[in-house]
Amino acid sequence: MQRKKAHIDLRIENANINRGIIVLLTGNGKGKSSSAMGMVCRALGYDMQVAIVKFLKGVQETGEDIFFAQQSNVRTAFMQTGFTWDTQDRQYDSKKAAETWLVAEKYLADDSINLVVLDELTYMLNYKYLDEKSVISAILARPKNQHIIITGRAAGESLIKISDTVSILKDQKHAFKANIKAQKGIDL
Ligand code: ATP
Ligand code: MG
Fold first, then answer.
1. β 50-54/22-27 pair status
2. How many domains, in total, are found in the chain?
3. C-alpha 113 to ligand 1 mean position (Å)
4. How far apart, in whole angstroms, are the C-alpha atoms of residue 144 and residue 110?
5. Which of 17, 77, 79, 98 is deepest in the core (most CB within 10 A)?
């Protein structure tokens, strides 16, 4: 235990860099977007300024959408279209994705914003609704102390490469598979 403590103390001492980081939450398990929203709560506790951009916003409003709408430190941009794979109009979806990305770019250029959440961004890149190179450049060019959280299944190599913290959530069980409806406060 003593040796272990010394080792951990040294690692804490070495962790002396202070800068904005990129957190990537991917994989098929539940907990990506809700974890991002948990970090938003943490940031708000410190009176930080937060921007939430939701790509692929579902038809269903979530509890956090309702809650954060009342928070003066949170600004939001929602891609105003349903699920991309449901719609047949790729051109329309691309247009909406581009419009939403324009707002995201503004947040990424604003050094008064401490945390930017890019929820479900992975799909925009995987389905080529947004140009990956421009997205990556804008993220890398953000203010030095701004944190980014990216969520979505199947994150590509380039997102993994630029991220500082990467968690892959694994799907072991999900209530939905036992025919349990999406539950308020848990799923939405
Ligand atoms: P959450 O927002 O709950 O953290 P998520 O962001 O990890 O979920 P998404 O792929 O964005 O997952 O899906 C969002 C919705 O789908 C939520 O209602 C969530 O409970 C549900 N969901 C997530 N993972 C699974 C799964 N493996 N099987 C079935 N439904 C799932
Ligand atoms: Mg999600």
1. unpaired
2. 1
3. 27
4. 11
5. 79
